[in-house]
Amino acid sequence: MLRSPITQRQWRSPKFRILCALALGLLLEVLLHQYYFHVPRPKVDLDPVFQVGCAEPDTRAPSENAAIIMLARDEDIESAITSLQSLEDHFNRFFHYPVVFMNDQPFSSAFKSRVSSVVSGESIFELLSTDAFGFPAWMNETDGKELVRANGLKGIHKGALESYHHMCRFYSGKFASLPALSPYKYYWRVEPHVSFSCTITYDPFRRMRESNKRYGYTVALWELADTVPSLFRAVSEFKERRGIRTTTLWKSFVAPTWMPWGTRWLVAHQPLRNAEGDIWNKCHFWSNFEIGDLDFFRGAEFRELFAYLDEAGGFYAERWGDASVHALGAALLLRPEEIHHFEDFGYYHEPWVVAPANAAGRQMEGSKVLGPVGEGVVEGEEEGTGCRCERAQVRNFQSYCMNKVQRGVRVRPWRNRMWGDWKEK
């Protein structure tokens, strides 16, 4: 004969009832904690594509207060020219924006001459100070070098490269206050070793201004966990101390803990977690391509965030990357609708490829400005967005992080065109 697992005598016990009530309360608290981080999809898209397909470039409109920026050295000359030529062919031949070249060493006359011959706008050369591209003033240089060496011994990706640590710190915050960039409001970061595969017939700076966008990206990926074990905790502490409200974009970067209240301290000091035990899902914007509002990075809130992180020492004690700092900073201080995904841009930086489909019937075959459609341009697709994209390659990254960062602004999950269907994970 089967018996109930809970006897009537046990149920009448006050201690047993208290334990049941406590367990139920903890379960309810965990479920509410999970629900708090749920990000509902909006009823309408808050981040539509700026332009679907091609259009005649409006070259008569005044240029925006913007510049293309590139951090390079003399030895990068060939890859820098490749990137610049690709950008000119696909965009800057229409709009002629200036390019600001940045280096912690003086550029040679040969470098200046060769890149200037490619750029259709003005070429500007900026020599970086040791404050901008070096160890912070409070850190002893010998100690800093030892921290870099320790990262290398741990096998951290590029952790042994002192210049890479400097670059991450520079692009995380120092770049925005450069004298050469002081006249500009917007920047477009271009790296050596990149290429573009779609024709860009509109001015993205103008569209950013008109749409009140502050930061734009092409790819969202996982960060390497061993490079940033304490970054999320540091940013979360800054958020808590300043009393900054939680946005839906911030929630998109957080995987809430399933540990019940009162026990979260057991996991709070694990890598990637904050004091509440919640964990960063490692998603971030891949910042080797970004178009942004310099006033955001010059603003008091972001400067305070960068100073807080800089004083924490994680750019050298660990290998905090500028991509993650920008992503978490944007999630912390911007509204989700102020972020823009340039899904119509074709972009390659090893090893990742962005390859949007062309928009059907919008390739402007007879345009005198754009010229004839190249042989590498494939026929458009119904839901394509690109203009004359050369699709020799397809997207080669998963859609998990794209769906995470776009959940609060897109009605439907992001479409991974590698498989050709809508996927949500």
What does it look like?
With 425 residues, the protein is of the alpha/beta class. The chain has a single domain, classed as Spore Coat Polysaccharide Biosynthesis Protein SpsA, Chain A. The protein is 34% helix and 12% strand. The chain is built from 14 helices and 16 strands. A seven-stranded mixed sheet has the order 3-2-1-4-11-6-12. A three-stranded antiparallel sheet has the order 5-13-14. The longest helix has 23 residues, at 14-36. The protein is globular, with a radius of gyration of 25 Å. The two termini are 46 Å apart. 41% of the residues are buried. Mean pLDDT is 90; it is low at 417-425.
Put the structure in a nutshell.
The protein has 14 helices and 16 strands.
CATH topology: Spore Coat Polysaccharide Biosynthesis Protein SpsA, Chain A
Main sheet: strands, sense, barrel:
7 strands, mixed
User: What is the class in the CATH system?
Assistant: Alpha Beta
Number of helices: 14
Low-confidence stretches: 417-425
Question: What portion of residues belong to β-strands?
Answer: 5-15%
Portion in helices: 25-40%
Strand order of the largest sheet: 3-2-1-4-11-6-12
Q: For the CA atoms, what is the radius of gyration?
A: 25 Å
Shape: globular
Question: Class by helix and strand content?
Answer: alpha/beta
Q: Report the strand count.
A: 16
Order of helices and strands: HHEHEHEHHEEHEEHHEEEEHHHHEEEHEE
**CATH architecture annotation name:** Alpha-Beta Complex
